[in-house]
Amino acid sequence: MRLPIRNDVPPSYDEAVSVHSHVSAEVCGATLRLAPVPSREALIVKVQPPRTPPVDIHHVPCDIVLVIDVSGSMGSPAPVPGEGGSEDTGLSVLDLTKHAALTIVETLNADDRLGIVTFGSKAKVIQDLVPMNDASKAKTKDNIKSLIPQDATNLWHGIRDAIQVFKDGGRSSRVPAMMVLTDGMPNHMCPPAGYIPKLRSMSELPATIHTFGFGYSLRSGLLKSLAEFGNGNYAFIPDAGMIGTVFVHAVANLQATFATNAKLALTYPSSLQIESAMDSSVLLEEPKATGPKDKRMKALQLLLGNLQYGQSRDIFLQVRRRVAKDTNGEGVLDPANLEVEATLEFDKAEIRPASQDSKTFGTADQKSCTLSVRGSITHQASDLSDAEVAYHESRARICKYLSSWFPIGPDGEHRVLAEGRAQKQKELAQLLDDLPARNHLDTLNQSLMEDLTGPEPKGQISLAIKTDEYFNKWGVHYLPSYYNAHSRQICNSFKDPGPLQYGVESPLFNACRDRLDNAFDNLPAPEPTPTVRRGWHGGSPAGGHGHSRPKISMSRYRDAHGVCFAGSTLLELASGRVVPIRKLKRGMKVRTPAGSRKVALVLRTPVQAAMLCRVGSVAVTPWHPISLDGKSWTFPADVAGSIVRYTGSVYSVMLQRDRSARAHAIRVGSVWGVTLGHGLTQGSDVRAHAFFGDYNRVGKSLVGLGVDRFGVVEGRGVERDPRSGLVVGFRAKLAARSSNQLHQSSMMRKLSLPQSSI
Prior knowledge:
Blueprint: E1 16-22, E2 24-27, E3 30-37, E4 42-48, E5 62-69, E6 80-81, E7 86-87, H1 93-106, E8 113-119, E9 123-131, H2 134-145, H3 155-168, E10 175-182, H4 195-200, E11 208-214, H5 220-229, E12 234-237, H6 240-255, E13 257-269, E14 272-276, E15 288-290, E16 297-308, E17 313-321, E18 323-325, E19 331-333, E20 339-348, E21 367-376, H7 386-403, H8 421-434, H9 443-452, H10 460-464, H11 468-488, H12 507-522, E22 565-566, E23 570-572, E24 578-580, E25 589-592, E26 595-615, E27 618-620, E28 626-627, H13 636-639, E29 642-655, E30 665-668, E31 671-674, H14 695-705, E32 712-720, E33 727-732, H15 741-750
Parallel strand pairs: 1-21, 5-8, 5-10, 10-11, 11-12, 26-32
Antiparallel strand pairs: 2-3, 3-4, 4-17, 6-7, 8-9, 13-16, 13-20, 14-17, 15-16, 18-19, 20-21, 22-29, 23-24, 25-26, 26-27, 26-29, 28-31, 30-31, 32-33
């Protein structure tokens, strides 16, 4: 259900508005504030957009051009890394990309426009910017569904043609965004001098550029640089399990845009040295001298890009005063009462009240707003709490550390540090010791600490650089994406605790995100695209096919590896965070229809080309009961959108003992999935099962297989009664059945199981 978003007294907006004030200023609904922190030699500039739009709206209208890689590698399987290998659901990277694109289309309306550009060895404009009315949306969906993998990767021509699509679309007051998705490295028609110099030589970009890298064969430094130059965001999509959440958040941020083209200019005496504490960006420039010679000043400009409703932008700056010489030649600080002037300029995104005709909307220019503040930064400290100061300083220091791994080359492209990685690991240890956030227990500061260190799924930053193997495979792509979320203060997925703190105060962002999330889950599940084989000379398709939807009798599913979910399935924890089900461990708290419950055991079963049902974004065994509302239950076999072949590990969960069956279900994707030992062993309820419903029998069987220190059991399917064919237990991994009776007895006690012989 969409949250009501309104304000009883809408402000009036002038074409150009300017306000000058000391300490803080407000105009067009936004507030600009200087918060000096002399004790930290710092200045925090706070930009605060309004919490909600002045009138009730569905979303802020957008102009979006999708720039989609259709090179040959996009037809390869979209893997989801498992514990001991990779999973193959029969879907390609392009299949999932098309599903994400269809999700975007689903949430647009006649106020929005959407265009499509593809790039293989050549770029092609599939669709110009057209309003998303019902007829256009139907045509757009057909265009997306028709995309097939081709040959090389000509990224530059894709970007070039998308820029032209915006120019051809004419002036607009909508929020413009180019969304570029690729799974590899550009290898055809790359600009000789580099992408960033080529873009610099062109006229002003007509839209922000947002880049998305899928998989591990990426040129992430280039994607990061393109997003920085385009005042957009770079997001890393490691696997199929993340594509939905990344695209959902990217579009939700666009649809909650308050202003575009935001620029912050600081003017201050030349006796001050002010610099960004977050370090490198391709757009970051050195301060410039300004003013008459006798009153020489410095000017520093920071490009902020888009601002979102309800989410502040907090710029943490290092400030140092010039050291002068006294009559004895000793160094002394300049005694002047030094003032800084900050000026914010932005274009206010136009919104359409429900009463306005959509046919006349979007043709005007965006309204320009300017506000300035001036204040001393050397005498009186701001009234910000110690915890807030610690949070912004810690966020800046984390970003600066991550940025040091990816210096900018002469061509404007970020490249990974070639030497000194061991030293960088030592620097992280030092950062953890010195970080101000560690001294505060509030949610914001602790979210940073959780991302830095702790057992999985926490501590992703430490894990990303732990070994060369981790760093070279995914850390090199993940860290720039994480940096981007904090530097621009945007929530970019449901995954990391730190970025999850952004947007929480924005009803519009949350409403858009929920709507997109539901659309992604409830669209018909994607079906594998036939793989096109081309001849040696790259002519017309040779007629070969790859993945296609299996045509298999549902009785084939009854060999049952049990009741399980694919390892990539996103599961909701009690805290509201989501993690892949393969990350669960004993003691973690999950959400159930009855509230928070702890995980007792996790069963992992490796499978090869197993048949699973797709229900929304969830891949599940056919006879694992699921529910949309937590009350009425059904089998996936009866409601599946498609069937997939799956290679990897499937997972089942056993929660803490509870007499209520409602306490034995987990939230996976958009459905509830029953857990083992739910207490229903007979009757007409779909969940009822003589073995799977019996907590004692399930617990004994799992403990008998051997439980590791994380509460994970590895099995290889189910045991059946040879006469009745009914499931009576779990099969052990070959030669893996535990013989440690003391360990078994201990586990039986923890699960409150009878101590009879197994």
